[in-house]
Design a protein that fits this description.
Elements (H helix, E strand, L loop, with lengths): L8 H7 L2 H31 L5 H38 L3 H28 L1 H7 L7 H11 L3 H16 L3 H25 L3 H24 L17 H35 L4 H38 L3 H28 L1 H6 L5 H14 L6 H13 L3 H27 L2 H33 L1
Helix pairs in contact: 2-8, 2-9, 2-11, 3-4, 3-6, 3-7, 3-10, 3-11, 4-7, 5-6, 6-9, 7-8, 7-9, 8-9, 10-11, 10-16, 11-12, 11-14, 11-15, 12-15, 14-17, 15-16, 15-17, 16-17
Subcellular location: Cell membrane
InterPro entries: MATE_fam (IPR002528), MATE_MepA-like (IPR045070), MATE_MepA_subfamily (IPR051327), MdtK-like (IPR048279)
Organism: Hydrogenoanaerobacterium saccharovorans
């Protein structure tokens, strides 16, 4: 069914041709995800090139990554949990309850942001030391994080509430939320770092300002008449059932991001343990690999987030053929992106490393570690669609399990076991092996789940 541009988004989610609709929703979200990665990645690029101290400062910045991911995880717990449920309720024709999910999300994000700010500021240095900071890297990590934490509430609102914009099908507006902040960050970084000579602190100041602007933008849209769902004082009163169901569904993405934090902490400590005198250099290399990993996952996240409103809406409408067709096209897009990015990481690692540092020793190490760690990452194109479709369909149990499978149940044990036999290189190989196992397990379970859903909706 062909619909014109003026057709209501709900009608498009219910009746428009799947592939054009998926591309329309996916491309802006994918661009937004890539631009979103610029917040931390641009910081690392500028900091890694600081004269004289670039490699040490980059290692320090890498140590802040677990805490930043933890902050992001809480925004996803609320946003990625509540937004699909709001979309499902819209698909079922219940706008009143959909509004409650948005209002409760706004309140929860404010509360969580305030608590995280206080807790993280108090425990900042002890956490960084526990995560593998050395005497050389701690000052850089502490200075950056101390400023970054001031903007925690802004991060919660910008990321958490933007999911509700995307869930309504307004992918272009969701993209604008991210692009505005990220472009501002790119512009302000060199000004604060070099022109004002603030170094790593300047990078953090630029990031906080950018996050503030993004937060204002997304809240403004959700309070406007352009949005089908609006933030109102009435809906901000916390409803335990709404909060519980949002958190139950969002726990999968929350777990995925917390897993990223736990894994980075563990890997940094293992790199220091097995890396010997090159421990800080390995941590700097891992900081680059983490940035590259962020870039890799952003298009895949954009694709699954573009597919999410279609899947969620039609889950509420009990329309299995549209759900199945959406997953099919999402897989094609995701696998294609994964293969292209895998090829870049395997065949062009030197040029990627050059974007972050001019240290030749660090570049030589990163060429080896990137090829080893990301040698099987192409399989995650299938994994991301399967795993996140559980979230879009509101399946709490499976979304949680597969949220912890690859990182917690597979990668961490392998990262502790393999170095005993292979030395420091086993830490990087653990990622490659866990990718292969997780995609097979997830696909088998997901296929069986879809077959049951087909019978249920028949």
């Amino acid at each position: 069914m062909k619909l014109n541009n003026k057709t209501d988004m709900s009608e498009k989610l219910a009746h428009a041709e799947i592939l054009p609709l998926l591309l329309r929703l996916t491309i802006p979200v994918t661009v937004a995800q890539l631009v979103n990665a610029a917040y931390s990645i641009v910081d690392r690029m500028y900091i890694g090139r600081m004269p004289g101290v670039g490699t040490t400062a980059l290692s320090g910045l890498g140590l802040t990554f677990p805490i930043i991911m933890m902050i992001t995880a809480f925004s996803s717990l609320i946003g990625m949990g509540g937004a699909p449920l709001a979309s499902i309720r819209l698909g079922a024709g219940d706008k009143k309850e959909a509004q409650l999910y948005l209002g409760n999300a706004f309140s929860m994000l404010l509360i969580i942001g305030a608590v995280l700010t206080v807790v993280c500021i108090i425990w900042k240095d002890p956490m960084l030391m526990a995560f593998g900071a050395s005497e050389a890297t701690l000052p850089y990590a502490s200075d950056y994080l101390g400023v970054y934490l001031v903007g925690t509430v802004f991060v919660q609102l910008a990321l958490g509430l933007n999911s509700f914009i995307n869930a309504q099908g307004y992918a272009g507006m969701g993209m604008a939320t991210v692009v505005i902040g990220a472009v501002l960050n790119v512009v302000l970084d060199p000004i604060f770092i070099y022109v004002f000579d603030m170094g790593i602190v300047g990078a953090a100041v630029a990031t906080v300002i950018s996050q503030f602007v993004s937060a204002i933008w997304v809240v403004g849209f959700l309070c406007s008449k352009k949005s089908k769902l609006n933030i109102t004082l009435r809906d901000m009163r916390l409803d335990w059932n709404i909060v519980k169901s949002s958190c139950a569904l969002g726990v999968s993405m929350f777990t995925f991001l917390i897993n990223e934090s736990i894994v980075v902490i563990a890997l940094n400590r293992l790199l220091r343990q097995y890396g010997g005198t090159a421990g800080d250099l390995h941590i700097a290399s891992m900081a680059i690999l983490s940035s590259v990993g962020q870039i890799f996952f952003m298009p895949l996240k954009g694709i699954v987030q573009g597919a999410q409103p279609i899947i969620s809406y039609n889950m509420g409408a009990r329309n299995y053929p549209r759900i199945r067709q959406t997953i099919h096209y999402a897989r094609i897009c995701s696998i294609t992106c994964a293969v292209v990015m895998w090829a870049a990481m395997v065949f062009l690692p030197k040029y990627i490393a050059l974007a972050f540092t001019t240290d030749q020793e660090l570049i030589r190490m990163t060429v080896v570690t990137m090829r080893l760690m990301y040698s099987t990452v192409f399989v995650l194109g299938m994994q991301m669609v399967n795993q996140n479709s559980f979230i879009a369909m509101g399946n709490t149990r499976y979304s949680f399990f597969f949220g912890i499978l690859r990182k917690v149940l597979l990668l961490l044990p392998l990262a502790f076991i393999l170095p005993i036999f292979t030395g420091v290189w086993g830490i990087y190989a653990a990622e490659a092996i866990s990718n292969l196992i997780s995609v097979v397990v997830t696909h088998i379970v997901f296929t069986k789940y879809l077959n049951r859903l087909k019978l249920e909706f028949a």
